[in-house]
Amino acid sequence: MFSRMAALRALVVAGLVVGAAACGGGQSEQQPGGTAASAVVIRLTGSDTMVNLDQAWAENYRSVAPDVSVQIAGGGSGVGIAGLIDGILDIAASSRKMEPEEIERATKSAGAAPKEFVVGLDALAVYVHESNPLQSISIEELAEVYGEGGQTTKWSQLGAKSPLCAADDIIRVSRQNNSGTYAYFREAVLGRTRELRLGSVDQSGSKDVVSLVSRTPCAIGYSGMAYADKGVRALPISKKKGEPGVPPALETALNGTYPISRPLYFYSRGTPSPQAQAFIDWSLSDAGQKILQDIGYVPAPKSAP
Amino acid sequence: MVQRFSTRLGLLGEPLIEWTIRLCGWSAIFFVFAIFFFVFREGAPLLFGTLDLTEFFTSVNWRPDSRIRPQYGVLALIIGTMSVTLLAAVLSVPAGLGAAVFVSEFCPRRVREGLKIVIELLAAIPSVVWGFIGYMVLNPLVIWATGAPIGINILNGGVILALMSVPIIMSVGEDALRAVPDTYREAALALGASRWQLVYKVLLPAAKNGLLAAALLGIGRSVGETMAVLMATGHAVQLPSSLLDPVRTLTATIAAELGEAVEGGDHYQVLFVIGTLLMVMSLVVNVTADLIVKGIRGKQNV
Q1: Three-class SS of residue A285?
Q2: For the residues A89-112, what does the mean pLDDT come to?
């Protein structure tokens, strides 16, 4: 009898520990931003891709400037830009550039042109196992590998039969369908009208993708450029089959030649207030960029405005 | 004074203790129903609303996030759960019951105490750690041993789940065997039965109910396990064609997607429908087990 009780008790304790950890993780994200006593509020809304990043910045900024509260909301880049034009925001977070017409309207509404800040880069790299002989891959080929109805399921079809991958099957490593990386990869490779093929091995973190690929000679996977690690190779990527591949790097991501990267922007409403300017400066500082890197984005180049 | 006080406490204490214990018993029933109710309630609007039940049960297309048309087909997830659980049961029930017989009947006393402590320790390992072992240790082993293109698959998940349920099956099974009176053993030995005959002809039939309960507790753990299978089965929505294909289970889907699903949205609700489905599944398993046990008991009484 004792042993049964012990086994059950052990189970219950283990369950509680795991449960508590899971709950704790979930709740910390839900914490309201800032205390009611904060004197200054910076309103920051926009890109869903950047919400986690904004949130992390806002939380850490509280220890830098306790009297400033940064309020975060998502909704999409369009929502942020619209809010900027309507004057209900201090900063809009956007994963696309503002259209000239939007800039004009925002200028008219605020009395001064919105200032653009590149706060980081969202660049995805396509990783294969280091033993894989594939030299580069095109977006078209990626679409055939990952897309619904795609015909590429064997490495030999890409001309890259690997000696370590005896089965020759391409193991597609992907992300959980709620991740921003997943959504961006789908859009960049398949456009808006094609689905990803089911049956990919879905991982819950950017790092997990790379570590799984490094252990699996047959695998291909996508993740943030910053996650390159031992055991994997990031492939140069071209738009069309036969074109020379562009290696994933800071410069190619920045000048737009690398096909799956996009800058992440902050736009201020007119000339930013001193507090908003301080927040943006801090986010571009080493401390702010370290947080950005931890979340999985590429730091903004130092020369950016 | 002291005397009188303690008597009064005794008079009061008796019903108090009785009520406390009664409350404990009833609260278990209350909690089960409350959990079922709340899980069901979250999913109910979709279940009785726009959810296409034919698609839900027969489609392998699990695309809750589609921009074109969200599809909620859980067939691949059900098959995933079943395949991993089945493999785990096939591996763990013989191993667990075998271990129980060994520890209870064949093991020297000294070794037994040590062995029990170690096995109970095994039961205390959190499932995340098991998942980690599947992901880091078993993954390359499976690739190396089978030549599979990827090592996190049904085989990996099944082995991990089996390792997790063996301690439970062993622990409960051993108790069942110990509960068989020693007079049975003495009688069998006196009749000239060998040790194996004693186990096979006397102890196993006598402890049948307890052993069945042990096996079902172990299988129950496999069905409900989440973290370990999330990491060890590969989390891929597809119908497996061999033991070496990655799959995704119902529980892992809920764990992975509920955090980011918009509260009250279709995706959120369909995850609760899956939760209801899981509860119904375990209810069916438990009731079936109960009926089997009752059937055995009935036969024995006749």
Answers
A1: coil
A2: 88
